[in-house]
Amino acid sequence: MASKGIIDKEKFDSFYIPVYGPREQEVREIILEDGSFFIKEMHMKGSASVEDGQMRRYGSASGSCGAKTSP
C-alpha cells in the first residue's frame, strides 16, 4: 500500500498489531483445567515473524478433544 502511494511509508512502518501465540502447554492446561474435556491429540503449528530484526515464533493449535460423560 505504501509503495502504491495509498498510505504514507511512515504510517506503514509504524503500524503494529501485537500477536500472542500460546505454547502447547498453555493450551493444554486451559482445556483440561475444569475437567470437562479430554485431549485425544493436539498439533501445534508455528509461523515466523520478524520484528526489529529478530525472528519470533508464533503458534496455533489444532486437534481433537471430547467431552467427559458422567457414569
From TrEMBL:
Residues 61-71 have a biased composition (Polar residues). It comes from the Eukaryota. GO terms for molecular function: metal ion binding; methyltransferase activity. It holds the Pfam family Methyltransf_7. Keywords: Magnesium, Metal-binding. Coiled coil: none annotated. InterPro entries: MeTrfase_7, MeTrfase_capping, SAM-dependent_MTases_sf. Residues 50-71 are annotated as: Disordered. This is Uncharacterized protein. It comes from Brachypodium distachyon. The lineage of its organism: Eukaryota, Viridiplantae, Streptophyta, Embryophyta, Tracheophyta.
